[in-house]
Write a structure and sequence with these properties.
The protein is an alpha/beta fold. Helix content is 49%, strand content 15%. The protein is built from nine helices and nine strands. Strands 3-2-1-4-5-6-9 form a seven-stranded parallel beta sheet, with helices on both faces. Strands 7-8 form a two-stranded parallel ribbon. Helix 1 links the parallel strand 1 and strand 2 (27-32). Helix 1 packs parallel to helix 2 and helix 1 packs across helix 7 (204-216). The radius of gyration is 17 Å and the shape is globular. The chain starts with a strand and ends in an 8-residue tail after the last helix.
Amino acid sequence: MTTALITGSTAGIGAAFARRLAADGHNLVLVARDAKRLGEQATELHDRHGIEAEVLSADLATDAGIEAVADRLGDRKNPVDLLVNNAGFGNKGRYLDVSMADELRMLKVHCEAVLRLTGAAADAMRERGRGGVVNVASVAAFVPRGTYGASKAWVVQFTQGAAKDLAGSGVRLMALAPGFVRTEFHERAGMGTDNIPNWMWLDADKLVASALADLARGKSLSIPDPRYKALMGVVKVTPRALLGGISSKTGRKYGPQ
């Protein structure tokens, strides 16, 4: 039986990955900060699907938290076959309205943790000649919208570059770039969502099903909905100055995830 490790597993997209992978018969390593919620999630998934669910409480905004998860990913005796780097958050406010400490914390979680955990997982997977990594980004990666969008753009570029470097190794890497998803993300960040049209919202479970299908196809980038695929096509041909103006009015306040 294969094992998947999911960061930020207790809510939103991470929880949807956990539900789907458990239903498919994968053992899980569930990673988040809240030990109580992790325990409850592990018990529920074990009881419902009969899989083994290990819990690892770790704060990926700290070196100790990153190292703890990297050590688990590097365990050759209990290998991880799929890593889902999902942990992330948004800061409410424009650049310079957000404290530098909070900006750096975001970069730690979105960039440094993703880099180090992907490296730990891919190194072990390459030895075995198989494995997969999904790094959760956002369609915000493709428009100018401050630190959040910049960090997600880094996730996309890093993942696609690493995927090319590991081509032929048996290790698949994919960046997942969803749009607005009905999760706790916006509430936790203190962001309002009243101005977001209903058609822009995605279902987390359907998103995960699409993402896993794209990973199986060997894609290095997944934009898991025809509506957002069409929007990103428009973005590619829209002048950056215009995108920046639109983003300054909406994106920083209502960041997708």
